[in-house]
């Protein structure tokens, strides 16, 4: 039944997904030169769309005297200017293509600095993303409609939880809303029949730890444990393997970039070469999104440090797609309360809620110098009422386990040149 509901929903929402998935299953057998021919063709198309239909790229290419015709090889990409996060955030309007698209979605993100971005994503690009994920699933013999436990999207209002639960149940999905004992036990119970566990690796780790500590039953039908959105720390791996009997595999991507890499069963993160061109410059990743026509992203500094494997590295799985050795700089650090430990993505939700529910969009950085204490640096000037809203939102997540200080009108500091939303100076 879930299969039918899933396929119907997919047809309505993402009409081009099926075709794209078939293409990706075909291209996964391609040689490097076939992949690169395809990349060049897509790159030329994206560059031409960028130049001819966005104000931003027209101006920035003209400034250095480059025309779309100058892109004759993948190497020519280096002629184009680098796009920083700042460029992106301050030119959202002029980065959009004036072309018409059959169908668009609004994609939004809260970036690593806490700056939120919202842009239009054409249906083909959205479908390409999903198809890329489903291709990754297929390596584990996993169908997207199989039962899955989602460790993501903590939400605290009851009405939202109910709505989410209904939507989840249609997708054969259940999720963990809190670590509260009964809720947690019911979640672990449902895991028994799950084929997939996915979410932030720090949360998967926390759950694994609780399962191990309390000797709770281990899921038996799992095919894949997938960690997203942050570097998987080595100390997470052992705990997760022990709790779930499977190693954690990683999916790497971002809203603006799409899926960048997906780990194969042999443990290598293959670049999603049909979707992105990845450059490594001074250990930093630059992304060119080859599918996002409505909002071209070319040579974008995503803000992560990475290490690409040598192009000669061969994977036993048979895929020729280049390999990402390591994501070195997207660390999901823990936040220490007086008596408990919390994942740092709580900050993401605190500020996302403020924006969603109170139209209060803040640039922030949270600093922890001592366990049980947090300093919230806010760039904007806050009214008393706004400070109270922020305090209330923080309390929803940390209750009385944290002493907080809020400083508005502050400069947000960068660490090793990289702006971070959370800086921990503990250990
Ligand atoms: Zn492989």
Give an overview in words:
The chain is of the alpha/beta class and 427 residues long. The protein has 2 domains: 1-332, Rossmann fold (3-Layer(aba) Sandwich), CATH 3.40.50.12780; 342-424, GMP Synthetase, Chain A, domain 3 (2-Layer Sandwich), CATH 3.30.300. 37% of the residues lie in helices and 24% in strands. The chain is built from 13 helices and 21 strands. The strands form 5 sheets. An 11-stranded mixed beta sheet has the order 4-3-5-6-7-8-9-13-12-11-10, sandwiched between helices. α13 links the parallel β17 (373-378) and β18. α2 (17-27) packs across α7, α3 (32-53) packs across α4 (55-64) and α10 (201-213) crosses α11. The longest helix is centred in the N-terminal third of the chain and has 22 residues, at 32-53. Bound molecules: zinc ion.
Features:
427 residues, alpha/beta, Rossmann fold, GMP Synthetase, Chain A, domain 3, eleven-stranded mixed β-sheet, four-stranded mixed β-sheet, binds zinc ion
Q: Topology of this structure?
A:
Layout: H1 2-13, H2 17-27, H3 32-53, H4 55-64, H5 85-90, H6 92-95, E1 104-110, E2 116-122, H7 123-138, E3 148-151, H8 158-170, E4 173-175, H9 181-191, E5 196-200, H10 201-213, E6 224-228, H11 234-244, E7 248-254, E8 258-263, E9 269-271, E10 276-281, E11 284-289, E12 300-308, E13 323-327, E14 334-336, E15 341-343, H12 346-358, E16 364-368, E17 373-378, H13 384-398, E18 403-407, E19 414-415, E20 418-419, E21 422-424
Bound molecules: zinc ion.
The site of zinc ion (ZN) has 7 residues, from loops.
